[in-house]
Amino acid sequence: MLKKIAVFASGNGTNFVALQQAIQTRPIPAEIALLVCDQAEAPVIKKAQADGIPVLVVNFRDYATKADAEAIMLSALQREHIEAILLAGYMRIIGQTLLTAYPHKIINIHPALLPQFPGRRGIEDAFEAGVTETGVTIHFIDAGIDTGQIIGQRTVPVMADDTLDSLAARIHQTEHQFYPDVLQSLINKGAI
Ligand code: GAR
C-alpha cells in the first residue's frame, strides 16, 4: 500500500520535485496525492500539474480566519485520504485545525540547524552570523515557529569564499537528498 502524502509549499518547489523524483525512482512506498499551495503564482503549482498531481490553491485573503482556510484544506486532505503532510517551503504556521487532524504526521524541512536560525531567513541568518557550519533540520511540527521534535539533521559546511548564493545552493542540494531519505525511513519504521 502506498502511503498517501500531501506536500504543502509556497514557492519554487525544488524540494517538491526532489521528493516526487525520489518516489518515482526509489523504493519509497508513497504517493504525493495532493499539493497544497497558499500562493496562486508559485512556480511549484505548474511542477505538480506537469506530473498530474492534484493542486489545491488556498488564498488566505479569501477567508476570515486561519481556521476557515484550514477547514478547506482539511476537506481536500480527507477527500484524498492523505495520511501525512510534508511541508516543503510552506511559509505559514500550521494552525490548530490541521495539527489536531494530523497529530505527529506533519513534517517540516528547515534550512538551518535548529534551534539555531528559525524563521523565514534560516540561510541568510546563518550566513550573516558568520558560522562555519550550518545545515538542514527535518522535524515534526507543533504550534511554534520551527519548533517540534527533531527527526534528523545534516550539517553543511560554510566555506571561506562562500556567497549567500553558493551556500544556499549547497544547502538545497543537501535538502534534496535528505528529505526523501527521511520520508523513506519514516515510512519503513511505520512512523507516519
Ligand atoms: C527550502 O530551503 C526550505 O528549507 C525552506 O524554504 C525553501 C523552499 O525551497 N523552508 C523554510 O525556510 C521554512 N522555515 P523550495 O520551494 O525550492 O523547495
Automatic annotation (TrEMBL):
The active site is at H110 (proton donor). The record marks D146 as: Raises pKa of active site His. N(1)-(5-phospho-beta-D-ribosyl)glycinamide binds at G13, T14, N15. GO terms for molecular function: phosphoribosylglycinamide formyltransferase activity. (6R)-10-formyltetrahydrofolate binds at K66, M91, R92, I93, I94, N108. Keywords: Purine biosynthesis, Transferase. Residues 3-183 form the Formyl transferase N-terminal domain. The keyword Transferase applies. Its EC number is 2.1.2.2. It catalyses: N(1)-(5-phospho-beta-D-ribosyl)glycinamide + (6R)-10-formyltetrahydrofolate = N(2)-formyl-N(1)-(5-phospho-beta-D-ribosyl)glycinamide + (6S)-5,6,7,8-tetrahydrofolate + H(+). Pfam families: Formyl_trans_N (PF00551). The keyword Cytoplasm does not apply. It is an enzyme of class 2 (transferase). Catalyzes the transfer of a formyl group from 10-formyltetrahydrofolate to 5-phospho-ribosyl-glycinamide (GAR), producing 5-phospho-ribosyl-N-formylglycinamide (FGAR) and tetrahydrofolate. Belongs to the GART family. This is Phosphoribosylglycinamide formyltransferase. The lineage of its organism: Bacteria, Bacillati, Bacillota, Bacilli, Lactobacillales.
